[in-house]
Specification:
This protein has about 170 residues and is an alpha/beta fold. It folds into 2 domains: about 5-125, 2-Layer Sandwich (Transcription Regulator spoIIAA); about 130-170. The protein contains 4 helices and 9 strands, in the order βββαβαβαβββαβ. It has helices spanning about 35-45, 65-85, 100-110, 145-155, and strands at about 5, 15, 20-30, 55-65, 90-95, 115-120, 130-135, 140-145, 160-170. Strands 1-2-3-4-5-6 form a 6-stranded mixed beta sheet, sandwiched between helices. A 3-stranded antiparallel beta sheet has the order 8-7-9. A hairpin with a 5-residue loop joins strand 7 and strand 8.
Length: about 170
């Protein structure tokens, strides 16, 4: 089973799927880094034992604290072993233009493992998160989620469990 976590002001969006898509996007400044990051490291550790045919890991951080970086490094070690065992693993490190600290973090991690990073500078004004209102067909509960989260639900094959009520919800 994968992991899907919506972005908060303190924690990044996470989409880890058994089909080889591992995405982390946002800021990581949570005070309880262990409770957030250790389950992700544990998931990656289990995933690399029987990975998908191809694994694409995408990072797009706004900000991370030093405690977060320790857990990212642990994930990288597991992915590196997976690649050394002959599995296809690619790492895409996205960063906002002029964000040298996130670029340098990626370069530091790149130097520690054998998988070459693909760096992508993203030119952007800060985009407002577009949101969608959905209703669960099972429970009838409604929620407002980001389009990014909705896209992950669709990619993971669960869109039939929901009804879209409004596609342009203001935050």
């Amino acid at each position: 089973m994968g992991i899907l976590i919506d972005k908060t002001p303190d924690c990044p969006y996470v989409n880890f799927s058994e089909n080889g898509v591992l995405e982390i996007e946002g800021r990581s400044i949570t005070e309880d880094v262990f409770s957030f990051w250790q389950p992700l490291v544990d998931w990656v550790e289990q995933y690399v034992k029987t990975p998908a045919e191809s694994t694409k890991v995408t990072f797009f951080f706004e900000y991370t604290n030093s405690s977060t970086n320790k857990y990212i490094n642990e994930m990288m070690k597991h992915l590196d072993i997976c690649a050394q065992n002959g599995h296809n693993v690619s790492i895409h490190w996205r960063y906002e233009e002029d964000d040298e600290s996130i670029l340098m973090l990626g370069q530091d991690l790149d130097a520690l493992i054998s998988i070459p990073f693909q760096f992508e500078e993203v030119e952007m004004e800060r985009q407002k998160s577009q949101r969608v209102r959905v209703k669960s067909k099972k429970t009838g509960n409604e929620a407002i989620i980001t389009y990014r989260y909705w896209d992950a639900i669709v990619r993971n094959g669960h869109s039939d469990d929901y009804i879209i009520l409004d596609e342009d919800v203001k935050a």
